[in-house]
Amino acid sequence: MKQWFADGVFRTILRNCSYLLSGKLGGALFGLVALACTGRGLTPVLFGTLVLIHSYASGVGAVAKFQTWQLLVRYGAPALERGDVGEFRHVASFAFGLDILSGLFGLVGGLALIPFLASWMGIQAADLPLAMFYCTLIPTMAAGTPSGILRVFRCFNRIAGLQLVTPILRAIGGAISYFGHLGFVGFVLTWYVADLAGDLCMWWLAVRELRRQRIRGALRPGLFGPARHLDKAWEFVWTTNVAHSVWAAWGPLSNLIVGGMMGPAGAGLFKVATTFFNSATKPADLLARSFYPEIMRLDPTSGHPWQLALRSAFFSGAAALVLLLLVMLGGAPVIGVVFGKRYIAALDLLQIMTGSLIVTMACFPLESLLYMAHRQRAALVAQTGSAIGYALLLFVLIHAFGLAGAGLAYVGGVVIRALLMLVPTLDAYRRREAIPYVAVQESPA
């Protein structure tokens, strides 16, 4: 263990994770306040309707979104390590162009489809104009360039601060809507403004960081021109886009499926359970965000990045054991105090879902390792296969067991994803000597 902490890269991963964790903990507290105000200020049906509207917009954004932050880390971080600012400009330009394209495509598609899907999801005709208005957030939701820029320059402390913007505004607006009796419209506008402000602040910090680094012209959008300067950029973009779109859409689309099969009230209970579960898995998500940029700077043919993966997985799995006990023991009191007794039914669902907590947290390095090893197609197969399996399990198990079936399906989907990721990762490790790597050229003394 002492040797682990003697590794500077490992210390950097943990330090960056601590920055993000501090922001997430604060965000989680304000997020609970916001959900408490919303849950108490609305009936379960209206609360579920708000969840469905938000889930639809974020789900469409997730499907349309190119994972441009992955592109920036994959190509931009090594370019900066080599001192090649010109290549970094090409990467950022390409990423920005993709964000504009995906944002417009998602906006048009989302607005066109929601009138036909609203009744199936349980959104009433009277609430359809608000749902369409909420869809105007899709372009900012689909943008990954600012996050990628901040990660490449290791601005994790600033990202941590940004994580507080949306939950703080949502909590303040939620309290105003609750005590001011502003009703359903007030809560919808609160969530809208909070999401928009968080996204715009991310862009503002990214632009400011580029200016601080004296990198000009990086945010001139382009597609085919910049891509010609990047080896296999389009292949990487399409593969990661589909893989991550499938994974990112899990949460929103599962809310929509549950809402379509069990109504808005069922979607609201499912949202409460998944909110607590996602909060418990945040340490793994934060480790992944700090882990991926660091290993992209390392030689994949050596044992170093693979050792870092094992060490990080060990820490994350150990944290999962602690969080599992906290969720099992403290879930009922917290749900009762925050949301009210009418949402206690979500506890049974949450307890079922915690069965996948250790798997989720211990397996977080697998996807990053696949991208490092140029196995993005294997990641695509794993994400797609697990998503299809999860969707099938949702339909079958909800019919068989009701709301509890949604929790069982979630556990099954997580296990399928872990297995499909593990097999190609082990194969990549056995063949690591063949992984292409461009060494960083040291400047002459």
TrEMBL record:
It is a multi-pass membrane protein. The chain crosses the membrane at residues 12-36, 42-64, 91-118, 130-153, 313-337, 343-366, 378-401, 407-426. Keywords: Cell membrane, Membrane, Transmembrane, Transmembrane helix. It is found in: Cell membrane. InterPro entries: Poly_Biosynth_Transport, Polysacc_synth. This is Oligosaccharide flippase family protein. It comes from Novosphingobium organovorum. The lineage of its organism: Bacteria, Pseudomonadati, Pseudomonadota, Alphaproteobacteria, Sphingomonadales.
